[in-house]
Amino acid sequence: xxxxxxxxxxxxxxxxxxxxxxxxxxxxxxxxxxxxxxxxxxxxxxxxxxxxxxxxxxxxxxxxxxxxxxxxxxxxxxxxxxxxxxxxxxxxxxxxxxxxxxxxxxxxxxxxxxxxxxxxxxxxxxxxxxxxxxxxxxxxxxxxxxxxxxxxxxxxxxxxxxxxxxxxxxxxxxxxxxxxxxxxxxxxxxxxxxxxxxxxxxxxxxxxxxxxxxxxxxxxx
Amino acid sequence: xxxxxxxxxxxxxxxxxxxxxxxxxxxxxxxxxxxxxxxxxxxxxxxxxxxxxxxxxxxxxxxxxxxxxxxxxxxxxxxxxxxxxxxxxxxxxxxxxxxxxxxxxxxxxxxxxxxxxxxxxxxxxxxxxxxxxxxxxxxxxxxxxxxxxxxxxxxxxxxxxxxxxxxxxxxxxxxxxxxxxxxxxxxxxxxxxxxxxxxxxxxxxxxxxxxxxxxxxxxxxxxxxxxxxxxxxxxxxxxxxxxxxxxxxxxxxxxx
Lengths: 221, 256
Ligand SMILES: Nc1ncnc2c1ncn2[C@@H]1O[C@H](COP(=O)(O)OP(=O)(O)OP(=O)(O)O)[C@@H](O)[C@H]1O
Ligand SMILES: [Mg+2]
Prior knowledge:
CATH topology of the largest domain in chain B: MetI-like fold
Strand order of the largest sheet of chain B: 1-2
CATH topology of the largest domain in chain A: Rossmann fold
Largest interface: A-B, 28 and 21 residues
Helix content of chain A: 25-40%
Number of domains of chain A: 2
Shape of chain B: globular
CATH architecture of the largest domain in chain B: Orthogonal Bundle
Number of helices of chain B: 10
Order of helices and strands of chain A: EEEHEEEHHHEHEHEEH
Number of strands of chain A: 10
Radius of gyration of chain B: 23 Å
Oligomer: heterodimer
Number of domains of chain B: 2
Largest sheet of chain B: 2 strands, antiparallel
CATH superfamily of the largest domain in chain B: MetI-like
Bound molecules: adenosine-5'-triphosphate, magnesium ion
Mean pLDDT of chain A: 92
Structural class of chain B: mainly alpha
Largest sheet of chain A: 6 strands, mixed
Number of strands of chain B: 2
Mean pLDDT of chain B: 92
Distance between the termini of chain A: 32 Å
CATH superfamily of the largest domain in chain A: P-loop containing nucleotide triphosphate hydrolases
CATH class of the largest domain in chain B: Mainly Alpha
Order of helices and strands of chain B: HEEHHHHHHHHH
Helix content of chain B: over 70%
């Protein structure tokens, strides 16, 4: 999916968090968005996901204005969006259940994804019985099971240790590349931005070169 | 562990003993204990009641009334609570009506219920329903409004429809609050079913207790009271048990 944002203004109540933002993401591309805390990164993802309508400007996905949410546009939440009464397996199954995939089949597929994020054996654990990083991985498994065409990731690896983080980066990137999924990836981590991004945008400063120094210079203003 | 049980048994035994001593020796210290039946009299009476069909008939009537009234209240209260919390239009439409009726204690509706319903039986069930309905409605409404938005957002970005959000997020997420309302509702429902039976019933534990009082059968009154207490305890236990099963995922439920 391609994304085209033109003059987007969005916020909560009267105050605008984003003002006149322009942004383009090509089909199959991975765009990294960085910026200081509170600058509106999560807000941007919510608008593209269709959870929050903009007050001015346009958001086009494949040339069509976004109106409401869609299973084609998955959002990986910053503070995990798992349902606390469902165990890990049933959380991963959820997007499949919503579109009526038969139980036996979705079990198998959900198990496969949990395996791939390194959580085999934790299928029956409730979210509160998992660590923060494990919950993030369940959420990643759920997102991959959804098979969206556009993925919006809000600091998805924030709670992971260095080793698990690079394993997860590798896995998720491999799946996204393989399926040609377009991605908007929000992070605080400049090294992560350089490693993963096809392009990098610093919110408030515009597009910058995918180099450590260039990003740091733009973030520091 | 064993010591705690000993303490509990001692406390109960001491209470019974005090009752027996005060009533048997006819103590009259402003409070007139000489008027009350002794613990032994009541125990004998209770044992006799347990052998009589009438006693079980009364239990059955009261339980049927509370069961029906409470069940209706649980279904209607939960449904309406969700609707009022989720839909602004229906909320504005229904809420004012409910707020007008809510401050009236259900028991004050007895005259209306007698006039409105063809049989006393239906009137009593109605009173019970009204009593349990409001706590259930209010708790459900609060619980639905307090749901974290992330859960609903997650379902919507997975392509969930409004109906799927309702079934998969709103109802399960509100369940702990709903059960809070059910517990309170059950307590209030007992108060009202007993009072209504005392006023207008022909059978039932409340009716029998008041009947015993009017014929100066004081052991019978106390047996009635104890029976009501036990019934309340058992039904509250059932609601609590179901609630625990439905909300095992809550943080505090790890060990239970
Ligand atoms: N639900 C909300 N209601 C009102 N204001 C909000 C809400 N969510 C965010 N904001 C405000 O919008 C601004 C941007 O928030 P946002 O979550 O988009 O920042 P962010 O860039 O994702 O920050 P972080 O890196 O800390 O996650 C903040 O000033 C915040 O106070
Ligand atoms: Mg954020």
